[in-house]
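Morning, I've got a small favour to ask if you have a moment. I've dropped the whole record in just underneath, so have a look.
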Amino acid sequence: MEAVFIAAALVFVAELGDKSQLMAMTFATRYRARTVVIGMGIACAVINLASALVGDVLGRFIPEHVLEVVAGVVFLVFAAVTAWSLRGDQHEDEVTIVPHSGKAVITVGLAFAAAELGDKTMLATMTLATQYSWFWVWIGSTAGMLVSIVLAVILGKQVLKVLPVRAVHAVAAILFAALGIWLLVG
């Protein structure tokens, strides 16, 4: 059980202010909270399971710089898509929430999974799995990430009460672009 608490705490703290929370907040402006939590929850469970099971193998065969380039490109794509959404109706002051659907869950889950590849929490989960039982590390890291996601979704919904959706999307586009450039350059 020690592994569960260590992994949960480590992943939760690592996710605070991370791109995962930014994505959850951004998705919460477009999809229902339930859709975001389910999509990201499934993706984080799968990602953390893979991290715990094959961490050593991935570490030996895929250089970290390759994963950073892929993640950088993904964030530039997120920035472009988010910025593109700003070109719409100038009177878009109200939020249009997409109904819960399987397609929305898959969209959220795949986007989250792509962004998490090579992330520090994935690497932390891999490292912990070399020291503790992969099962308990998987449970703990997934729990820590889920708590972080739920917190971000709730915060995202609150932000919309004080800021127009266009402002939230503009800030998200800038942050996604900055993350993408930072990963590609740094």
Summary: Confidence is low (pLDDT under 50) at residues 91-95. The helical segments are 2-15, 19-27, 33-61, 64-85, 102-116, 120-129, 134-162, 165-185.
